[in-house]
Amino acid sequence: MSVAIAAVAGAFLAAGAVALIRLGTSAGLWTVLWYATGVVLSLPSLALGQVIARRRPQNPVGALLALVGLSIAVIPSVETYATAAYATDLPLPDLVGTLDQGSWMLLYVPVALLVLFFPEGRLPGPGWRWVAGGLGFVLLAFVALAGMTPEAYPPPFENSPHALGVLPDAAFPFVLVLPFLLLALLIASAGSMIGRFRRATRPGERAQLKWFALAGLWLPVSLLLCWTSYLLLGMPDLAMIGLFGLFITIPVGTTIALLRHDLYDVDKAIAATVTYSTVTTVLLGLYTAISFTGGLVAGGGSAVVAAGATAVCAAALSPVRSRVQRLVDRRLYPQRRAALDAIAALRQRIDTGDSQPEELQAVLRTALADRALLLAYKLPGEQQLVDAAGEPIADPEQATPIVLHGQEIGAVIRGGDATSRELTREIAAASALLVEVTRLRIGLSAALRDVASSRARLLAAGYSERRRLERDLHDGAQQRLVSLGLALRLAQRHLADGTVDVDGLLDQSVAELGTAVAELRAIAHGLRPSSLDDGLDVAVRTLAGSLRLPVTVEVSTGPIADDLATTAYYVVSEAVTNAMKHAEAGWIGLRLVREDATLSVQVRDDGRGGALLRPGSGLAGLADRVAAAGGALQVHSPSGRGTTIQAVLPCAS
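The chain above was modelled as a monomer; its predicted structure follows.
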């Protein structure tokens, strides 16, 4: 059906083109522009009608949209043909001129039928058949009878005879009633959309109706342009812009509504259109009132009055727009206005010290009526999203990133479909500063907890090490030294009488002293590896050489402090031990490089990964040791892809 309608439209446009060709240079500029306008405005409806018909072959909306394009093509084509037929020898000039008198109704009836059948291709109910039939009857009757009124036709057909005859006087009132009947049917058609919207239960149906209504908003926009044109130019020329927009937005809006209604946020578009239309209406009314009042005092056409009216409208623009925006949002987009107002109110309470930024999640849940909505935060230096308590959130669905200065700082996670994606993005942008403050506070709290926990672990480790040293000294070197002292005292007492083998006793004491020295040295080596005596480079290479798997070593540290070398060595030793014992690694890479004022220690392996900085683990103790030296330890260990442990330690230049 849509193809046949497009073919008929093509035939009418071809007839108009032939008429222009026959007119040649005698065709006036208005005739050419009028025909070109019909061509341009009919193409979107004809083309998109074919698209809908192909994508939704069972839905007659595509054919009805093509019918809208046909109606736009018919009027200028018929008028151009009639003009040429009177000036040349084209056939049927009188009949075409007569039928053209009522053709303007073609602009309204196809659009009204489209409204009645949109979006599913069915009438809202059986009773609406009378409306659809009435539209067809009014159109046919008016096209046939409008040219039969006794008055002369308007230019350029003022000399054209009435090809269908003249109506009797008794029938003339019937012709006058037809436009009013059309108006009533148009209002009824618009009312059908309101009824459909209220009864809509199918997912997406309301969004489709909103898209169609958005296209229809160009009708009041065209009226506003007409009003503006009369005020500024004294003629309705600007109304043509509105008509252009109307016959372009109707096919575009219909197509989006049927095929991609979930692509954009239609509520926001409707709210913006209604807002600026209302603001324009208010300002035009204000300008008109001031101009009329000033004209009574200063006379019409006063430049002072015009300038004053313009200045008042300019001053009123911002407050009027802000007020209207809020009213429209509350009416058409209550969720958006509630959320933005809640964020603004929270900011004010934070400024006065009555609230905390962490309350943002609860505020948004209340404003959006979404109890499952969640705010996630990306802490500085971390990639994992966490909640307000610092607990990780694994692969959240329906997450909208929160970005500030090009950096992702968190996400808004919807609890369901109650909140649209577009609204979620707007909320994310509006709450970015509060989220930034909150995530920094969460990060600071976590860092303070880590510092306190690390300090407690270091104290506990220090006490444990002291007790171990006490036991080792008491059970080992201390006992030997006490025994050595007793033996020497015994030798002193019996040195003169010769009753004790002094030489043997002294030999035994020397041996005990050597053993005590060895034990003390062993204890000292427990505090600092003896392999560091020759430097960190040699110690790391010696450790690597003792391993039974391939190891690559890159060491470029230069002279560094002894305590820094000890910490770096323990990082390498602990990481290598983990790779050997737990990761089942087949290769290890060691890299120790001094860069400016830092020492970077990196240990990589190709093991099974999955290493975590769990409290009480060897890596946690290693992180504490690195933190005590003023550095930071990072562990990157994706499951099945090896482990990289990197410590960055500060070193004085």
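The mean pLDDT is 79.
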